[in-house]
Amino acid sequence: xxxxxxxxxxxxxxxxxxxxxxxxxxxxxxxxxxxxxxxxxxxxxxxxxxxxxxxxxxxxxxxxxxxxxxxxxxxxxxxxxxxxxxxxxxxxxxxxxxxxxxxxxxxxxxxxxxxxxxxxxxxxxxxxxxxxxxxxxxxxxxxxxxxxxxxxxxxxxxxxxxxxxxxxxxxxxxxxxxxxxxxxxxxxxxxxxxxxxxxxxxxxxxxxxxxxxxxxxxxxxxxxxxxxxxxxxxxxxxxxxxxxxxxxxxxxxxxxxxxxxxxxxxxxxxxxxxxxxxxxxxxxxxxxxxxxxxxxxxxxxxxxxxxxxxxxxxxxxxxxxxxxxxxxxxxxxxxxxxxxxxxxxxxxxxxxxxxxxxxxxxxxxxxxxxxxxxxxxxxxxxxxxxxxxxxxxxxxxxxxxxxxxxxxxxxxxxxxxxxxxxxxxxxxxxxxxxxxxxxxxxxxxxxxxxxxxxxxxxxxxxxxxxxxxxxxxxxxxxxxxxxxxxxxxxxxxxxxxxxxxxxxxxxxxxxxxxxxxxxxxxxxxxxxxxxxxxxxxxxxxxxxxxxxxxxxxxxxxxxxxxxxxxxxxxxxxxxxxxxxxxxxxxxxxxxxxxxxxxxxxxxxxxxxxxxxxxxxxxxxxxxxxxxxxxxxxxxxxxxxxxxxxxxxxxxxxxxxxxxxxxxxxxxxxxxxxxxxxxxxxxxxxxxxxxxxxxxxxxxxxxxxxxxxxxxxxxxxxxxxxxxxxxxxxxxxxxxxxxxxxxxxxxxxxxx
Length: 751
Hints:
CATH class of the domain at 598-749: Mainly Beta
Mean pLDDT: 77
Number of helices: 5
Largest sheet: 5 strands, antiparallel
Oligomer: single chain
Shape: elongated
CATH topology of the domain at 598-749: Jelly Rolls
């Protein structure tokens, strides 16, 4: 293209066209700089993955570059069915302790606080528990301590020897104490021999003697009536050995009267004759209203007076610190359940309170050094001191500006001022911290400080106008007009010299234009250094599990970890029918369902509480009801159990029974379970039977098992399975002493 101007007086204007930028004014010191924007036809696309969602904006030009942003995809419904613990905030992804703590819970023997994440041991509050939390925070159970000492009574002398160790166990012996001088002044009749205590008839016989009308032989212990030898006595021994009187006699008949006391009511009946002898009966008098105002604990029964433990126990009750069971008469100490109580029942059954122990230790941080001294006693209490830690070598390599004095930490202006210095055009006084402008001392400088302290320039300078002339270059034709005065300033114009075509550069009415070719496949663009360049052909992006670049020489293909051997080498089933790898038609993603889920459950149940004492014929199979409550073993499998919300599933249930039966001589019966599924009775499952009566009463133990299974249940289907212990008693009677069920369940999801 020819030049815009062919004479020095021509004024050219350089204007940027589409795809081109122009900088400068065309002068030798500030020439025109023409830059071409990238005009390439690069195509750029983004492909999302399962975890990143890409967004592409822009047109790919310098003024509107491509901008690719990626957002992490958080699964709103994780496969396990819980909540996603990952969160997205303005500063990125995060998982906080509060999110994770909800994943845990405590079971037997443990405590867990989801608000703090604190896990601890749970000490049972059951009576007699000796386990506590020790002074060091650990679980503490004191070593068993057994103290044995002898305690004599008036009748037994107890002796304890040994130390209680395995090699020298405690040995307790006792000897009966026999009173060598009984209170009555006689001889103790109890004798002690190698086989134990004894009292023999010969010892007792010497205690008796005969009085009037009686004869006694201490050698044989025989007591007999002694008739008087006085003349006229008509009493003799009759043929049957009894006393006999032929009658007659003299004197008045005996008179017997009843004399009552406060405790005995005596009654005399009869006339005193042989046919109607005197009969004296005595009834003990029990006070119906004792002086204390309570009930009389003594009672009269058909076999005599009695006072039972149950009568006496009601006289007692428990006060503070004690517990009393009037049903058993047991008295024991009552330990307070208030928080912080350290009193327990010791290993020897006594009340035990451990000595108080306070543990205190120092925990430093990066900025504070904590020190603990003292032992924590009243005379030497704990003393906690803390000192701030100042970094002697800060990370930036300078000196730490923080100082420490007797009154605390400080940073002074003098410490900070040394951090600054003055550069060109500036002045700085570190003694005062004052910043100011620094004026050049070069000759002709018209800059000064004004009356208000600001920078001030008088401008102007010499009155002689500057001389200005133009000089052309090989690429720019310049022209100067004007005289350089305020009324006629210099005007510098320039015309870019464009070489003849073809050269890729055109001068248009709007200015120079570099227009890349519109031919198909042109990839001319502007590089990062402002120069034209042709970028290399980028290889195609390959996603996960693929390899190759999509060319004939390197086609896209799956990239298995096991190599390139055929599937048939390891798997003979049809891939279309049996492979779990699928392509989602909605998203185009490949996916495979998770592996199968299985679960096992175990139940142990003792049903006979209380036992069933007696049963007669049942008229068919009936479920057992000890204490009026139906006995059963049950599994309730929910609809969303371990993946069955997505897959068909199945289960196997097995129940083993151990049964103790007492049967009479004519008993014939069957033992087993009644199976119920989802509230519908399926039927009886016998495990043992006695179809022929034993012929005699007896007690036997029986054992056996029943099973139930179901397969190909629909996905998300719930199932309730119940086994009821049951009998079919056709004759006689039985008692069920014990019935124990051991039950196991296994579930598994299916393809």
